[in-house]
Specification:
Elements lengths: L1 H10 L3 E2 L2 H6 L20 E3 L4 H14 L3 E4 L16 E4 L6 E4 L2 E5 L4 H9 L3 E3 L11 H7 L6 H4 L6 E8 L2 E6 L15 E11 L3 E7 L2 H5 L7 E5 L1 H6 L7 E7 L8 H9 L13 E8 L4 H6 L5 E5 L4 E8 L3 H17 L3 E2 L13 H10 L15 H10 L3
Helix pairs in contact: 1-3
């Protein structure tokens, strides 16, 4: 591998081969059980490109030597999208973070942090339409690669509906894609190309006014009209988060709140929208997520007896479950069962990543990947390709 490192060092300013860095860059937020750690392979090095030219150089060397590349942002996802399951070159995009504003759109590089983008837009009287709950750390490219829903998705939909175009790099060069072509990149974890920058649709930076309402889930659905953001937390999760021990609906509006409710609690819940995962600080938890249609979401929730958040989106409902850990393996099986129950009600897992490529959520992209990456060097074993972890999950699904 010395020749690979040498070539990379001649082409890219920042190349790191330190053993500790290689260990740190081998995982993301996904907790991997010890008996499965043998399937994680340390990268041969970590590169931090600062320009398109450096990204092209990495891909040229990757193809020449047949060494995979794994793109990485802040690694705030727990789907294993940035886990290195083969010796590879990790491409850390966090030094590519430029922001350019033009009218009601912003061209933002992949490594820019969402909250930094929002603050810069606010200085110009603008704001993001949607952003993730991990916005203080999560990067633009990372969330697009996961294909997420988040704050603002009730009014504006998922991140895929809020992108004008992407610039991506693959072994044939750099290209701009938009419209229907976006589906070959959004939610595919960099398996079809490395996201360099995105043109994001924006909104005016109007004040967000929020109210909290004590109500059950089914009634919450009838109260969503006109809201910018809506989220339901059941009483178990509300207690964990330090709010009232009751089922709560948070409704946030662009401008004056249109519904009656507790404005003080609503403001507190809105201000804590980035702190959801603190629910797992005092006690270890396993997170599990599923997406369901509005029609069957109430029936699904009635079968769940764990702390749950439900994010209402323009298209569907995203459920996030918190499973307290006594025994990790039992908790993991409960997490898998959560998704299996969702599937019975017409739902699906939230994302693929390393864990769920066998779910077939991105089957349409399989032939596309084979065409542009026949040697599977772009984040192999993710989204559209199986791996040891997904095979273990398939076996576990047979017993839960």
């Amino acid at each position: 591998m010395d020749s690979v490192i040498l070539e990379l060092s001649h082409s890219i300013k920042r190349v790191d081969t330190h053993p500790l860095q290689r260990v740190l860059y081998s995982q993301d937020l996904l907790k991997i059980p010890k008996f499965l750690e043998r399937f994680v392979k340390h990268p041969i090095c970590v590169v931090q490109p600062e320009s398109d030219e450096e990204v092209r150089a990495v891909l040229k060397i990757s193809r020449k030597y047949g060494i995979p590349v794994v793109p990485r942002g802040a690694a705030t996802s727990a789907y294993g999208g940035a886990v290195t399951i083969k010796p590879c070159i990790v491409v850390d995009f966090t030094r590519m973070r430029k922001i350019e504003i033009a009218g009601k759109k912003a061209v933002v590089e992949s490594g820019a942090v969402w909250l930094d983008v929002e603050k810069e837009l606010n200085r110009h009287g603008l704001a993001l339409r949607v952003y993730p709950s991990s916005a203080p750390a999560g990067t633009v490219g990372g969330w697009i690669a996961q294909g997420g829903y988040g704050i603002g998705s009730l009014k504006y939909g998922g991140i895929g509906k809020n992108i004008e175009w992407l610039e991506v790099a693959d072994f044939d060069g750099i290209k701009k894609v938009g419209g229907d072509e976006l589906k070959n990149y959004v939610g595919l974890f960099g398996t079809t190309g490395l996201i360099l920058r995105a043109c994001l649709k924006l909104r005016d930076n109007v004040r967000i006014d929020s109210v909290a309402i004590k109500t059950d889930f089914a009634k919450s659905i009838d109260l969503l009209d006109g809201a910018y953001h809506g989220v339901f937390v059941n009483r178990e999760l509300a207690k964990m988060l330090g709010f009232n021990e009751a089922d709560l609906l948070l409704l946030s509006y662009e401008g004056e709140a249109e519904k009656e409710g507790d404005k003080e609690l609503g403001s507190r819940m809105w201000e804590n929208r980035f702190n959801l995962f603190r629910a797992g600080r005092e006690r270890e938890v396993v997170f599990t997520e599923a997406i369901l249609p509005y029609e069957t979401a109430p029936d699904f929730l009635s079968t769940v007896d764990i702390p749950v958040e439900a994010v209402f989106t323009k298209d569907n409902v995203v459920f996030l479950g918190f499973i307290p850990v006594g025994n990790y393996y039992r908790a993991a099986l409960k997490a898998i069962k959560f998704i299996k129950i969702a599937e019975k009600f017409g739902g699906r897992t939230y994302a693929t990543g390393m864990l769920f490529p066998h779910k077939g959520l991105a089957d349409y992209a399989g032939s596309y990947k084979k065409a542009i990456d026949p040697d599977s060097l772009l984040n192999p074993g993710k989204a559209v390709e199986g791996n040891s972890f997904s095979r273990m999950i398939k076996l576990a699904e047979m017993i839960v």
